[in-house]
């Protein structure tokens, strides 16, 4: 059984939140997905792919998700605060 989750967030909310956190990103309308750059400049080859409608996300190395693995999170706030910025502080 496949579980579907809706974040109930829109493009404007996600992009404003990422700008407030000072993260650089791009948005691809075809998927629709956000590509969020790693906050550490030394890890410029790492990006996070985030589907804002379902909360699915994956870690990409050199613009590829090698393992084709995706995770789920409740919303953009959870992804940024728990995974992206938390990892950068370690």
Topology:
Blueprint: H1 11-20, E1 25-28, E2 33-37, E3 46-50, E4 56-61, E5 71-72, H2 76-89
Antiparallel strand pairs: 1-2, 2-3, 3-4, 4-5
3D structure, described in words:
The chain has two helices and five strands, in the order αβββββα. It has helices at 11-20, 76-89, and strands at 25-28, 33-37, 46-50, 56-61, 71-72. The protein is an alpha+beta fold. The chain is 27% helix and 24% strand. It has a five-stranded antiparallel sheet, with helices on one face.
Main attributes?
90 residues, alpha+beta, Copper Amine Oxidase, Chain A, domain 1
Q: What's the quick description here?
A:
The chain has one domain: Copper Amine Oxidase, Chain A, domain 1 (2-Layer Sandwich), CATH 3.30.457. Helix content is 27%, strand content 24%.
End-to-end distance: 36 Å
- Global structural class: alpha+beta
Largest sheet: 5 strands, antiparallel
How many structural domains? Answer: 1
Return the CATH topology: Copper Amine Oxidase, Chain A, domain 1
- Multimerization status: single chain
> Can you write the helix and strand succession as a string?
HEEEEEH
CATH architecture: 2-Layer Sandwich
Low-confidence stretches: none
What Rg is obtained from the alpha carbons, in whole angstroms? 12 Å
Strand content: 15-25%
Number-wise, the strands total 5
Query: In DSSP terms, counting alpha (H) and pi (I) runs of 4 or more, how many helices?
Result: 2
CATH class: Alpha Beta
Please estimate the helix content.
25-40%
Mean pLDDT: 90
